Structure formats: structure tokens, C-alpha cells
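Hello, quick one for you while I still have it in my head. I'm working through a protein record and want to make sense of it properly. Would you mind checking whether the C-alpha cells look sensible for this chain? I owe you a coffee for this, so here goes:
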Amino acid sequence: MVRDRETLKQLAEGGMYAAHVPHAAFAIALVTSEAGRPNFDLGQAAAYLQLAAWDLGIGSCITWMHYPEKAKEALHIPADLEFHVVLSFGYPAPQEHSQPPKRTVASPLMKRCIGNAGHRNSILLNDLWPLFVKHKVNSKTSG
């Protein structure tokens, strides 16, 4: 975990889109010895850290380190370790509107036939999940 402002500034130099990192309350570097391989467990760790933080009212942002050598140098991470992901954390700025946004209608491409072929209704994104699950179950059992 990194809290030192100067170290956060140096760490931000490792990513093309990391300008927010020096302003974070703290950051966590996700480091692995699994060089050259995508790491499922590292992704799960990142997701759970973000979910746990959100449950405490803390916001987070995942950042890719495009220049891992610079990022490793900032944190004194050995060259043989893999380091590309930083999570920055902090309290979100107060929102102007306290209510969540209303559900929005998906794009015109996301339509579903109801009744005859000429009658179409808009479908909401949240309504797609049951259709996906039904399709996956049917495709597994039919072949």
C-alpha cells in the first residue's frame, strides 16, 4: 500500500492514464511472480478489493501500468516480478444528485420481438440477463 505523495507521483509515471494516482488517498500495487501470463487470481483480488472498499464508501480506480519499469522503480519492485495493475482509492466527491439515475433504454439494435414480427418493444439492459441464461441453458441441453 502506498500513501506517500511523492511515491504516488512517481508511480503515476508508469501509466499513460494514471494522472489521478497522485491525488488518491492511497494506492495498492498488484504484483505477481507469474510473469508473462494473464493472472485470473490477480483480477479477482482487484475486484474484491474494489467491492470491499465500495462497501465502506470508498471509491477506487483500476489503472494499467503501460511502463512497468518506471512503476517498478518507484516501488523498488524486483525486475523478475510482474507488475501492471494499480488500484487507487479515495472518498468520492459529493454528488449533485443524491438519487441513482433512472434506467435507460438500450440502443435501437437491442430489440426483442413480442407477439408478431411487426410489433417490437424496447428492452432494458437489465432485462437481458434472464434471456442470456435461458439461451445458455437451452444450448447446453439441446446438443
Remarks:
- The chain has a mean pLDDT of 77.
